[in-house]
């Protein structure tokens, strides 16, 4: 398993899945729920500057997720998204519904954003891999 091709394939798969998760969540905030509904949710949760926060999180998740999928400036995108996840954990998920959502109606548990935060940290630490735009440009 300690072969570069296996490592790069695993990093590619991991990075693409994490990126797609962020694209879906950002797109949902921007286009499905819409900024008005997202702002209302953020306001109810006590997020500071809820309208600005809704726009920033929706755009950052959509654009940052796409950057992860493509693998361009991936460590930069992962760092920004990690800061966003840390803010989400602090303002929304910390102590809201416990660790897991099992049996909690509409709970804002901490396990999913924590998993995303750790996943982003793995991308920052190990990089995007050679199967990325960053990897191709670094070899050129």
UniProtKB/TrEMBL annotation:
Localization per record: Cell membrane
UniProt keyword Membrane present: yes
Pfam families reported for this sequence: DoxX (PF07681)
Keyword Transmembrane helix set for record: yes
Keywords assigned: Cell membrane, Membrane, Transmembrane, Transmembrane helix
Membrane-topology descriptor: Multi-pass membrane protein
Predominant cellular place of this UniProt entry's protein: membrane
Domain of life: Bacteria
GO cellular component: plasma membrane
Family, as annotated: Belongs to the DoxX family.
Protein name as it appears in the record: DoxX family membrane protein
Natural source organism: Corynebacterium poyangense
Source taxonomy: Bacteria, Bacillati, Actinomycetota, Actinomycetes, Mycobacteriales
